[in-house]
Give the backbone structure.
Amino acid sequence: MKQPISIRPPEGRLGVLLPGLGAVATTFIAGVMLARRGLGQPIGSLTQMGTIRLGKRTDAESPRIHDFLGLASLDQLVFGAWDIFPDNAWESALHANVLERAHLDPIRDELEAIRPFPGVFFPEYVRKLDGTHVKKGATKADLVEQLRGDIRTFIRDNGCARAVAVWCASTEVYVSANGVHHTVETFEKALQHNDPTISNSQMYAWACIKEGVPFANGAPNLALDFPAAFELARQHGVPVAGKDFKTGQTLMKTVIAPALKARMLGVRGWFSTNILGNRDGEVLDDPGSFKSKEVTKLGVLDYILQPHLHASLYGDLFHKVRIEYYPPRGDAKEGWDNIDIFGWLGYPMQIKIDFLCRDSILAAPIVLDLALLLDFAQRAGFAGVQEWLSFYFKCPMHAPELYPEHDLFIQLMKLKNTMRWAMGAEPITHLGHEYYD
Ligand SMILES: NC(=O)c1ccc[n+]([C@@H]2O[C@H](COP(=O)([O-])OP(=O)(O)OC[C@H]3O[C@@H](n4cnc5c(N)ncnc54)[C@H](O)[C@@H]3O)[C@@H](O)[C@H]2O)c1
């Protein structure tokens, strides 16, 4: 990544393309529509609410991130989507039952106008859904071409200057990369041959990258974190990021674990369980999809606590994560954590966290930030994996030779210092010796 010499201004309309028009996508779209009419605040969005300190603490200079970076404004956003059900955004928002009618009614016409393109759907990747609004094609290469056609149509019909995509569709079953995912050439050949290890999300990501559309993966499945996609993204000058929005339980975990580690307190066990009753919960009830989620949720503690460096504190840590589908709760998820810790001389203690959260209310601002920041990244000339956006993900994508950074506060520092660096301002190290010289 090179420091930008100049950054293209955010002129014109920015298309935000969402594979998956479900609870998260409609909550995001509705929130933006309400915010731009002054009927709601984009709470939880760092780009809209956050500030960034520049210079010394005594300089008192903290512009809004939005203004500092010159991001596209909410008024410039236009929404498009794909889904395997034909419901428009209004119908889908009613079905998701996240926002109240008092919020949805004023924007009904705008929501009804958002009708999804038919999706690309091989049901073996999401076993709990039986999509009816799907594309047909002789090969997976043909389906990628159809998706590319949708992108071009959307951009043309809506007079967009450019577009970004954020995957908000269901979590797919766990698959790992193989030889097919090695190079652009092997992947393109495999598309022609309908290779069964190419998933729905991989086809969307591939189509977006080829159309020069930055892509963020909000789910834990393997959509583009493999060498062929990295290569394609660099070839086409497209920034990409992922994966799996960090919203509820993992957000808390990546705050609490660094605190325990900072004080060198031991952890013997960490049991995390969730109940949720939305469609996402239903999809995650399938062991294949749960496995994708489990892997992203389990990874964080090992990287934060570094048991290889601190065997006596974290070497025997037992970490378990469960998700239970419980329809009465809908989108209002409950995430429990029981943490067995130990201190001075090995004396045991416990921490209990009960986070009564709302899944899509926490995810919507992340979709907004990723759309705006990926657009910024592309205008700044950044291509390939954007590790500085780790802040938003449970399982951050990173260069192959690195380990991922999971500590929320290191991620935040990295995010803000990347913003400063991109804009030609001094990064802040927090050293601060000069105040005492
Ligand atoms: N806090 C959160 O809500 C949170 C956090 C992390 C990750 N996520 C992930 O975000 C995604 C969206 O969550 P949600 O609650 O909106 O789920 P949802 O089930 O309400 O919406 C997903 C939508 O994707 C559609 N879909 C499935 N496969 C598709 C395909 N191949 N093409 C097009 N559309 C397809 C479904 O029909 C559905 O409408 C899920 O993968 C979830 O795991 C959510």
Summary: DSSP finds 16 helices and eleven strands in the chain.
